[in-house]
Design goal:
By secondary structure, the chain is mainly beta. Helix content is about 5%, strand content about 50%. The protein has one helix at about 25-30; strands spanning about 10-20, 35-40, 50-60, 70-75, 80-90, 95-105.
């Protein structure tokens, strides 16, 4: 568990389209086997240390004739940002994915004095 001093807790959040491959016939829609897409996120204000980041899918556009397989995560989390990662495998066909994220961590306080 992380505990934050008074006045240092901050929450940043956002939403981004990770990919849209239906119209151009990209590998997420036409391919098979292991596939992944990454989207870089930059936080509005840097945190003091890498924050806790929760990622979730906010839009699924999938083919209903195949199994739905997905691994959703945030990787390479730094105080400045992270990468949202969507992975699938097998015969799963994904036309588009949009993801939401929330980052929670400590930021500098107005009361902090540089030493």
């Amino acid at each position: 568990m992380q505990r934050f001093p008074r006045g240092q807790l901050a929450i940043d959040q956002g939403e981004t389209e990770v990919f849209s491959e239906y119209e151009e016939g990209g590998p997420m829609w036409t391919g098979s086997g292991s596939r992944e897409r990454r989207r870089t996120v930059t936080f509005a204000t840097p945190f003091l240390a890498p924050p806790v980041v929760q990622a979730t899918v906010s839009l699924w556009d999938t083919d209903q004739s195949t199994n739905l397989r997905a691994d959703i995560t945030a990787e390479h989390v730094t105080p400045e940002g992270c990468e949202l990662v969507f992975r699938t495998w097998g015969d799963t066909r994904i036309a588009r994915i949009r993801m939401r994220w929330i980052a929670i961590g400590a930021v500098a306080s107005e009361d902090d004095w540089p030493v």
